[in-house]
Amino acid sequence: MQCPSNSKFKMTTTTGGPKCRRTTSRLVHLVAILAVLCSPIWATAQAPTTRGYAPTTLPPTIPIFPLQDIMLFPRATRPLHVFEQRYRDMVSDALKGDRLIGMVLLEPGHEDEYEGRPPVFPIGCVGVIAESEKLPDGRYNIVLGGLTKFRITGEDENRPYRLAHIEPMWEEPTADDQVALRDLHEELAGLIPIAMNGLQVPDGMSARDLVNGIAQIIEIDPVDRLGLLEQPGPLARARALIDLLYIRAALTR
């Protein structure tokens, strides 16, 4: 089991297996969590930290990283601390290649099978390792930048870690969708501080990036978060998120 690398999580063990629990509010990390990969990333950095560019195509097979309550959304970023040996190997191999890792959600009820190959939901999000730092003991701190959704069509068991055959699910909003998203921005910006303890929307953030960022951090059941990811596109996700925010804010539309 891996917890995000920002030290605001601690590992606890319950009857359902290990779980990452947050020790302080998600809102403390607004800027880091809502940052998006809208521009190219520098290809080099001072060792032992590395950075990389996002690819424009996806291979048919990628490594997948199943977790029970941590997800990634397109165009959002996710810091991770990787310490389990098979996933250290996964990161090492990814850094030697295309730097891609798919984040998927573990199906509920299989937490105690985490050391094996428990069932996962078929829809996930692939990210590129935008930044990585290898620690002296072999653990990694990485930042994944979300690229696109994918669907798992099968698995390859030739590695200690999990490899999945995938179909990309690129999200390209139409011109009409983009107009509708812009129209929803004001409603989102008004709802978010009410529903999320005063969280303020950064100036200049597009509705699409705002929706994906909030969908990734809002405190809801992981399966409900997966429902947001599974929406057919940014506009549908925005509308579903707005419905959730109205419920959290105890407001009527």
Write the layout of secondary structure elements.
Blueprint: E1 9-14, E2 17-22, H1 30-34, E3 49-51, E4 61-67, E5 77-82, H2 85-96, E6 100-105, E7 123-134, E8 140-156, E9 162-169, H3 175-195, H4 207-217, H5 222-229, H6 234-249
Parallel strand pairs: 4-6
Antiparallel strand pairs: 1-2, 3-7, 4-9, 5-8, 6-7, 7-8, 8-9
Helix pairs in contact: 3-4, 3-6, 4-6
Fold and architecture overview:
The chain is α+β, with helices and mostly antiparallel strands. It has 2 domains: 26-169, Archaeosine Trna-guanine Transglycosylase, Chain: A, domain 4 (Roll); 175-249. The chain contains 6 helices and 9 strands. The protein has helices at residues 30-34, 85-96, 175-195, 207-217, 222-229, 234-249, and strands at residues 9-14, 17-22, 49-51, 61-67, 77-82, 100-105, 123-134, 140-156, 162-169. The strands form 2 sheets. It has a 5-stranded mixed barrel with strand order 4-6-7-8-9. It has a two-stranded antiparallel sheet with strand order 1-2. α3 (175-195) packs across α4, α3 runs parallel beside α6 (234-249) and α4 (207-217) crosses α6 (234-249). The chain is globular, with a radius of gyration of 18 Å.
